[in-house]
Protein: UBE2J1
Amino acid sequence: MEGQYNLRSPAVKRLMREAQELSNPTEQYFAQPLEDNLFEWHFTIRGPSDSDFDGGIYHGRIILPPDYPMKPPSIMFLTTNGRFECFTKICLSISKHHPESWQPSWSIRTALLAIIGFMPSPGHGAIGSLDYTPAERQQLAKKSRTYRCEICGNVCDKILPLTSKSDDSKQEMMDLAAQLSMVGEKEKISRQQRELGDCVATAPSTPSASPLSNTADLRQRINSNISAEPGQDSSAPSTAPSETATVAASSLDSTTTAGPGSAPAAPSPRFQKLMGRFHNLLVSHSHWS
Structure:
């Protein structure tokens, strides 16, 4: 196989080293590249104990990108298991579906331990996930031991029998699954925050209305609506604004043109009465700006 690849390639160097490290099967997993393709591996894992997959032996494929380990692998199962679909690239934080969560320091061994640790977790509708009943999964776990791969042979013979060391591996798998879940959640939150920031940045801004910009419009409303004193017909046409409108409008001018440091004059009783009527008018026309 060495003659087929550029030995200077970082991906080739890394995969050859990992193939050497994983050449001996363990109680929980075994994985090796195909004889004619260093970038396609077959793996065998044991179902986690104290779960619906207890006693199951599961087989699958790992497809690695040319720029591994800078990008994550694709993972799919070949054994029916009730948790992941067969022949479908599954969605995990250590798979190709989430490159933002992948870390180059992770390895194929990391992926295998993470898969075992994630198997008892709910699918939550992720790509390639299934939510079979516990009874169905237990039945599939028993059936999985008879699976035979066309390339690897009987998968039940690929891993070692359980020993007392299995408890240590189980704790490592659970810790790794929890760590990867936290990484995935952090990336999800960061992505949502970035999307929210983009929405805020691109949202059209509505300029706030200046009080002074509405003075002319308000004055026009005063002149057109307060056109008669009490006892007069308000619907009758008027050629000149009433005294109320004149006083109210002039008070607007004095208010809007006053300097920032000037002290307001005390309003007279007549002016207070007129402004009371003006206030009632504003209430009845609440749609004004």
About this structure: The two ends are 80 Å apart (CA to CA).
